Structures are given as structure tokens and as C-alpha cells.
Description:
- InterPro entries: HSP_DnaJ_Cys-rich_dom_sf.
- This protein is of the alpha+beta class and about 100 residues long.
- The chain has a domain at about 25-90.
- It has one helix and six strands.
- The longest helix is centred in the N-terminal third of the chain and has 19 residues, at about 5-20.
Amino acid sequence: MDSYENSSDFVKRTEQAWSISQQPRPVACSSCASKGHVECKWCGGTGFFVIGNNLLCEFPSRNTNCVVCAGKGSAFCADCKGTGFRAKWLGKPPPP
């Protein structure tokens, strides 16, 4: 690593530390539209476990609730941790 890369990294870290110290107001999370939760990717928001295009029917002997979201159909947003807001200094969340 040359000195230019070191200095560039140092500048980025210094700017981020300054941004954190300013405590700017949080911004709305764009990943979940400030809801704090997103549709479960495994069940498509239905709350039931889905294989292919077939929705499994519920049988008394077998529970088919989605094991990822526990049948709720949604999960906490990973970008805002369920709050609906992100710290401004974090910038925009990465694309999905």
C-alpha cells in the first residue's frame, strides 16, 4: 500500500469521524420506506412457506408457517434495524 492510499483512507475515516461527532438528525430509511420492516423474501409476505409457485396448504399434522418470519409475512429491516431511520453519516444503504 502506498502513501497515497494510506492518506486517502485516513481522510475518509477523518471525515466520517467528524460527521459522527456532529450528530446530524437521522434520515428516513429508503430500504423500508421508514416502516421498520420489509416483506419476507422467503414467503413473499404471505406468512406461509412457499415452494416454487405452489403455496403449501396448512395441515393439522404439519405446520407450514414460514420459518424465517414465523408466519408474520415481514421481517425487521436490516438497514435500519427496525427503527425506520438511519444515521445520516452512514449514507445511503447498499443496493439490494
